[in-house]
Amino acid sequence: MQIHDLVGIGFGPSNIALAVALDEQRHGGRRLDALFIERQPSFAWHPGMLLDQAHMQISFIKDLATLRNPTSRFSFLNYLHEKRRLADFINLKTFYPSRLEFNDYLGWAAAQFDDCCAYGEEVLEVRPECSGDTVSALRVRARHADGRTSERLARHLVVSPGGSANIPEAFRPLHGDARVFHSSRYLAGIERLPRARRIAVLGAGQSAAEIFLDLQGRAEDMQVDLIMRARSIKPSDDSPFVNEIFNAEFIDDVYAASDADRAAMLREFWHTNYACPDLELIQQIYKVSYEQKVRGHTRLRLLRRHEIQDVTADRDGLHLRMSNLHSGAPVLERYDAVVLATGYERDLHRRLLAPLAPWLGDFAVDRNYRVRATADFRPAIFLQGACEDTHGLSDTLLSVTAVRTGEICDALLHAQRQPWPEAARA
Known about the structure:
The protein has helices at 13-27, 76-82, 86-92, 99-111, 186-191, 206-216, 240-243, 250-256, 259-268, 279-295, 348-352, 357-360, 388-391, 401-416; strands at 3-9, 34-38, 117-119, 121-131, 134-144, 149-159, 164-165, 180-182, 198-202, 223-227, 300-303, 306-314, 317-324, 330-335, 337-340, 344-345, 381-383.
């Protein structure tokens, strides 16, 4: 069986950016044989949230390469140049392209690495390959869409699976009910329910706000409730000094801090990334709410300070029993559909790497995102998007992707130069 220098799990923005960084090294004469495995049948970036009016929340300059290498051919500006839209984009006078356009940019970059990405395969687990008492390589097992499985050997691994939908406990028994779906599947989910007229959206972040506004424009007789525990929708703080926490240099400060100081930083800046829509979006929601008062007809409601207690489902709909946290009064509402804009979990790597736990322990990482391992474990394993607790709030965002993948690329090349047991040489 061929042994790859590197296998990457997932081919979203993080691993596309890594492929770009490796491509730069290849042109510099330092080549790694890399293969990426992606569950989706083709490239797609949050396809369930590609709403017509949605735009990026970060500057286009924080693309796949520019902050590491401003001259890269994989920059967003070069993408615009190749698509013959550079002058037109300049005339927009914005740093924030539409999400549709940025998705097209990412797809344009991904397409240039089609020869090293296996689409339509879901990685099931990663197991050790031993040479004597030493783990010398990794066996990556994946399942194809038709149920077949395949295995590949790797000297090193980069795990970038993205986030998994966070489903509140009350809704987990309804797994498989088409009337309940996560925001990551919003467009497909709502299209399957053309007759739904009473819809609840759970959450108070960017996705919840975007979906709330999208629903209000779909049908004039649609009634939509935005349900949140918070007292109000808070805007993201993108002021210059606060935004410095998303600079790549800030990662050194976060990583070097004590556990207590790091936790305090994460708490202090939590609302720069979570449950914080753009101010412009909040103003649009307020304007819609005000115009309803003028008309004397309310079909869009904000149920603030409401908490879900339990959910039951029958042929008549979904029945949400809630508690009004302000008054303590019980609230019961029936809906045709519920959209869970409840964020993501970032622990899929623990399941995929579970067979390696005897060597990897609690999956702690060093500054260069390499999982710490015992001395008899030779492969280097890197995590992307799963290190927020140690590297800061920028870890799950595009903000540091270009710089981070450069650091991982350098660490990979360093690990590759180390001598290998005979069994790992192919």
